[in-house]
TrEMBL record:
Keywords: Membrane, Transmembrane, Transmembrane helix. The chain crosses the membrane at residues 24-42, 48-67. It comes from the Bacteria. This is DUF962 domain-containing protein. The keyword Transport does not apply. Pfam families: Mpo1-like. It comes from Pseudidiomarina donghaiensis.
Length: 109
């Protein structure tokens, strides 16, 4: 499958994350990534930045292999997948405060 834009890709990305437990693993990983990034900046202990991809992708991939039973989109669409992760996380955070996101998101093409 070839996608011409992120707007075309995102519905596919969401379909690959149908299991709520898989999405939860993504949210945990993304939250930890932000916490580690903040910690590294605050303490200026830059070696912590090395952990970010392992934390982010580790939790996401565990969700895919353990719950979704599919191959992460990162393997075929790395840039769109990374962007999709953060858009999905943003939608999750917005839903916590009662904001319903528009579909599809207006994102760079």
């Amino acid at each position: 499958m070839q996608f011409k834009s992120f707007r075309e890709f995102y519905p596919y990305y969401l379909a690959e994350h149908a299991d709520a437990r898989c999405r939860a693993m993504h949210y945990v990983g993304s939250t930890l990534v932000l916490l580690v990034l903040a910690y590294a900046i605050f303490t200026q202990q830059w070696l912590w930045l090395i952990a970010i991809p392992f934390i982010g992708y580790g939790f996401a991939w565990l969700g895919h292999f353990g719950f979704e039973k599919n191959k992460p989109a990162t393997f075929k669409y790395p840039a769109y997948s990374l962007l999709g992760d953060w858009v999905m996380y943003g939608e999750f955070l917005l839903s916590l405060v009662g904001v319903k996101p528009k579909r599809p998101p207006s994102a760079p093409q």
